[in-house]
């Protein structure tokens, strides 16, 4: 199972101390890089199995040379420090990791260790609670007098990231604890996760907007929770299972299973599969049963956690460095198989992105036949990431290679490694095409980007068809009877070449081509229904239209933000055309661009993509033609009647009554616009402590400056 490295590694037993020291340093550095990408960026570059193999080697070397173990070795630390951009939260009780068991013997040994430690006699077996190990990210929720006051990620175990506002959008998490038995201070802990079907759906949406694609449900849960824009988190289907706790002023039970029952009564979701086990055989049976059901659970689990049930025993057992002695994670083996890479195909997407796909000799991985696997991009094939870091230990992929395939998080098949010994002499490094396989246009890769794109936006059929498919997709125009299949056919017959053609189908019917009715699969009724369905969509919501345009990085969420901000299509179009005037300058200084960039939740990348779209005359022309055929409903405005509706507010300085995200969300709910910088359009500046240049600027412009309390009073809170 171990991933083969380029050079054979020296047996741990044969390492000299000097060699061990060097290798420990190298491994620590490599693991640290993986931890950063996994925990902070939610974008790992190696599989968990490859990561675990590196870790196990480091552990083996440390076991042989215990005096080489340093305080900051990966075996002594947890996770990674909080990422920049999040406020830090100190955990009252540290959040640790878990020791691992990979075999039945490891589990027996775990139980033996407990018995020896507690000096139990031979026939006295501690009762264990077996819990599915949910593959998400752990979260700590602090309740004071039953009210949720703070939520934080694990971070490095001691300090986590403040995600309070994000967490308030998760339905499974109660804002107030139920029942009479509520401790004054309690830190509830558990796992934030995403259902597999929701993950696939989200990735589809992300792909349609040419936005980040997540490797598995775990990364998408982490990436969705750890958002600076809370409205993005709110739009993601996150779920939560409670299973442990940190500080607990008056513990409501004295066993693990008792605590779980209390959590359920207090209003949390507790995993229904958790089982009390009296014998080692029972836990192993549970492990095997869950392993069989794994694929159909709906969410990913990567093992089973066994915990000593009696809390007084948990207390006595305590901790070793980064994990408790009273619990262990029994991991599932990764679902892997070996097969041959037969070829690499290039798919061209709606935005011209060229995605390589591996054509594999069909092979069964964990009960599912796999014949394709995504290869992500050019660098993934090369084995060297955009930032120069190695992928698969730096081994490239070649056609005819024997490769190890894995279903990551049970869902998307991935090529995790190459069996170099089996590489045929004739196998040549793969040369990524620099022209589009569909239209032959030049394909370029912009600096800092991983993706190579076809430049033939308007002449490239792959892009045109994909753009049209996107235009009629569910979150865009969503026209009954006009799906991907029909679009493909109509495009090939030159009936529909651009969006406006959809709306002139009826008047053009039979003019230069045969009537639709005469086409195979159509009759009088179905054609009438199609025309009616098209007509029904002549009146469209603004956010659907914006989404339908297929602008890079503009998914459903961003389309809604833009629609809400600009309210009507006229406003939006005018503002974007004004902003596009500055698009060729080194820095876009137009007021329209500043305003766009200041929308809460719209970053520079998105703003630039929108402006780029409007800077292309052919796009503007196509939109103009379309608007002759349709009517666009103004976006719904948030609550009108608040004292701050339509006012522009800037928050600055360090706020103590609420976080910056909460303040923004609150203001926007009341219909105010929240801007990032002070201008003459600003109505209020709400200043916390140490407010700097924005305060000075507010005074210059004569803008009203409020304290946090004055602001709360103004909005009537
Ligand atoms: N691919 C990479 O680059 C990369 C990088 C870093 C870590 N990883 C992966 O992350 C894992 C190691 O991370 P870790 O330190 O979080 O340890 P871990 O995932 O092995 O175990 C600890 C975690 O299990 C979770 N958990 C789920 N259900 C639980 C339950 N019922 N009770 C208790 N805990 C439960 C908690 O979040 C807890 O923090 C490994 O699987 C490793 O492969 C991968
Ligand atoms: Zn092309």
UniProtKB/TrEMBL annotation:
Positions of transmembrane segments: none
Residues bound to NAD(+): 48-52, 97-98, 131, 154, 191, 307, 331
One GO term of the biological process aspect: DNA replication
CDD domains: BRCT_DNA_ligase_like, LIGANc
UniProt-listed Enzyme Commission number(s): 6.5.1.2
Domain BRCT: 639-712
MF annotations from Gene Ontology: DNA ligase (NAD+) activity; metal ion binding
SUPFAM superfamilies: BRCT domain, DNA ligase/mRNA capping enzyme, catalytic domain, Nucleic acid-binding proteins, RuvA domain 2-like
Stated role: DNA ligase that catalyzes the formation of phosphodiester linkages between 5'-phosphoryl and 3'-hydroxyl groups in double-stranded DNA using NAD as a coenzyme and as the energy source for the reaction. It is essential for DNA replication and repair of damaged DNA.
UniProt protein name: DNA ligase
Organism: Bradyrhizobium septentrionale
């Amino acid at each position: 199972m171990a991933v083969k490295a380029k050079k054979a590694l020296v047996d741990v037993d044969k390492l000299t101390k000097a060699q061990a020291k060097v290798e420990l340093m190298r491994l620590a550095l490599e693991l640290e890089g993986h931890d950063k990408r996994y925990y902070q960026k939610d974008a790992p570059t190696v599989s968990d199995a490859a990561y675990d193999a590196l870790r196990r080697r480091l552990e083996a070397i440390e076991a042989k040379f215990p005096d080489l173990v340093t305080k900051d070795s990966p075996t002594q630390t947890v996770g990674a420090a909080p990422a920049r951009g999040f406020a830090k939260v100190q955990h009252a009780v540290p959040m640790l990791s878990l020791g691992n068991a990979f075999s039945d013997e490891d589990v027996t040994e775990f139980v033996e260790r407990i018995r020896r430690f507690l000096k139990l006699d031979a026939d006295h077996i501690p009762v264990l609670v077996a819990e599915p190990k949910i593959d998400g990210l752990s979260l700590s929720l602090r309740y004071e007098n039953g009210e949720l006051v703070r939520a934080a990620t694990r971070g490095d175990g001691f300090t986590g990231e403040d995600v309070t506002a994000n967490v308030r959008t998760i339905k499974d998490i109660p804002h107030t604890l139920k029942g009479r038995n509520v401790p004054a201070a309690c830190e509830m802990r558990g796992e934030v996760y995403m259902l597999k079907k929701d993950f696939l759906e989200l990735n589809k949406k992300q792909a349609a907007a040419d936005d980040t694609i997540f490797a598995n449900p775990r990364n998408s849960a982490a990436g969705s929770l750890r958002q600076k824009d809370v409205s993005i988190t709110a739009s993601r289907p996150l779920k939560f299972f409670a299973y442990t706790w940190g500080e607990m002023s008056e513990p409501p039970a004295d066993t693990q299973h008792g605590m779980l029952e209390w959590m359920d009564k207090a209003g949390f979701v507790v995993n229904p599969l958790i089982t009390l086990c009296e014998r080692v055989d029972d836990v192993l049976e549970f492990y095997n049963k869950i392993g069989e059901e794994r694929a159909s659970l709906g969410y990913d689990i990567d093992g089973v956690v066994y915990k000593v049930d009696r809390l007084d025993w948990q207390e006595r057992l305590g901790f070793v460095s980064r994990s408790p002695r009273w619990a262990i994670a029994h991991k599932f083996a990764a679902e892997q198989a070996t097969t041959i890479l037969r070829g690499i195909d290039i798919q061209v997407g709606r935005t011209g992105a060229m995605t390589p796909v591996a054509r594999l000799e069909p092979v069964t991985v964990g009960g599912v036949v796999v014949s394709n696997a995504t290869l992500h991009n050019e660098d993934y094939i090369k084995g060297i990431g955009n930032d120069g870091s190695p992928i698969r230990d730096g081994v490239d992929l070649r056609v005819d290679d024997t490769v190890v395939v894995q279903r990551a998080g049970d869902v998307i098949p991935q090529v995790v490694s190459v069996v170099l010994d089996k590489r045929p002499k004739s196998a040549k490094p793969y040369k990524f095409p620099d022209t589009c396989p569909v239209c032959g246009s030049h394909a370029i890769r912009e600096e800092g980007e991983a993706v190579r794109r076809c430049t033939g936006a308007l002449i490239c059929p792959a892009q045109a068809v994909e753009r049209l498919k996107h235009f009629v997709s569910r979150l865009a125009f969503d026209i009954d009877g006009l799906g991907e299949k029909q679009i493909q056919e109509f495009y090939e017959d030159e009936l529909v070449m651009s969006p406006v053609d959809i709306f002139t189908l009826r008047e053009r019917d039979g003019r230069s081509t045969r009537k639709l009715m005469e086409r195979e699969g159509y009759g009088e009724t179905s054609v009438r229904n199609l025309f009616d369905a098209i007509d029904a969509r002549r009146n469209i919501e603004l956010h659907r239209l914006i989404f339908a345009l297929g602008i890079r990085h503009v998914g459903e969420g961003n389309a809604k933000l833009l629609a809400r901000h600009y309210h009507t299509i006229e406003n939006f179009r005018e503002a974007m055309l004004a902003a596009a005037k500055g698009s060729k300058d080194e820095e876009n200084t137009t007021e329209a661009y500043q305003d766009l960039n200041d929308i809460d939740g719209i970053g520079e990348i998105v703003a630039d993509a929108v402006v780029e779209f409007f800077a292309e005359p052919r796009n503007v022309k196509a939109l103009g033609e379309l608007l002759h055929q349709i009517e666009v409903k103004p976006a719904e405005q948030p609550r009108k009647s608040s004292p701050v509706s339509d006012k522009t507010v800037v928050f600055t300085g360090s706020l103590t009554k609420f976080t910056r995200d909460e303040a923004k969300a609150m203001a926007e709910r009341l219909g105010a616009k929240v801007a990032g910088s002070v201008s003459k359009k600003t109505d209020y500046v709400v200043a916390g402590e140490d407010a700097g240049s924005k305060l000075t600027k507010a005074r210059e412009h004569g803008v009203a400056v409020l304290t946090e309390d004055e602001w709360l009073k103004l909005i009537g809170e």
